Amino acid sequence: MPTVPTVTLNNGVTIPQLGFGVFQVPDDETTTAVAAALEAGYRSIDTAAVYGNEAGVGRALAESGLTREELFVTTKLWNADQGYDATLAAFDASLAKLGLDHIDLYLIHWPTPARDLYADTWRALEKLRADGRIRAAGVSNFQPAHLRHLRQESSLVPAVNQVELHPGLQQSELRAVHAEYGIATEAWSPLAQGALLDDQLLVSLAERYGKSPAQVVLRWHLQLGNVVIPKSVTPARIRQNIDVFDFALSTADMDAIAGLDRDMRTGPDPDTLN
Ligand code: NDP
Fold first, then answer.
1. On the chain, which terminus has fewer CB atoms closer than 10 Å, C or N?
2. How many Å separate Cα 263 from the centre of its chain?
3. Does residue 200 fall inside a structural domain?
4. What number does the ligand 1 atom closest to the CA of 193 have?
């Protein structure tokens, strides 16, 4: 079983550098998919209240026979629940669905800037952190301006910013802000939802390394230092996506993949989603 390296967050908590995402997986299928991931060696699971599958994740965790300390669970606060009191209530609901007594990483899912509630919401995450109900507090889809605003409002720096990031959207400006503030970069849609896997460069690199294009992309993320959470419901792909620790891309090949950057968003624009 592969040993997944960890990344140390700015509060000393460690997160597996590669985890398993369950966006768009129906609740009843989530238990099977997460069980397959745990069997393959994943220990970090990324869900969200809005995915409607926290209960499915919780069932797989409970049935796994793994101890709570072996697992790293991330969930996210949905936009409609932003605001101090609403966040605390939504957190309790997520915890109950997951069947857990604490969350490893709790994220504000989107900044939704037009609502102007994310600073209040962040204060609720500060309380959850102070009460020991979450081990780390983070954000998702925050742009540099949103991170700067939070910095002015709070001394608690997000441990993580989970953002769309893949070879077609490399987020260099945001990654520089993360480096400056000490925020770990977590890549969602790390495989661009499959959209880049027939790219000629990635296919040719895959042939040369004796790996698949998806494995080449995941390796690229890991070598950049990103935390990645690829999703699959296909058992062979679930196993393939964690089998990325026995090869390394050369600097020249990392540079070649850097050339695929083209501002390609597969998801919404964080500045306008509300
Ligand atoms: P990914 O980039 O992980 O791609 C998933 C797609 O790629 C699926 O269609 C899957 O197919 C396919 N796939 C997976 N592995 C392989 C492989 N080895 N070869 C070929 N195809 C493959 O997309 P997601 O959008 O799911 O992102 C990953 C996770 O990030 C989510 O599940 C979620 O946890 C998180 N996320 C967070 C967001 C946020 O706003 N914070 C937004 C979006 C995602 P199949 O399943 O059929 O095998």
1. N
2. 20
3. no
4. 4
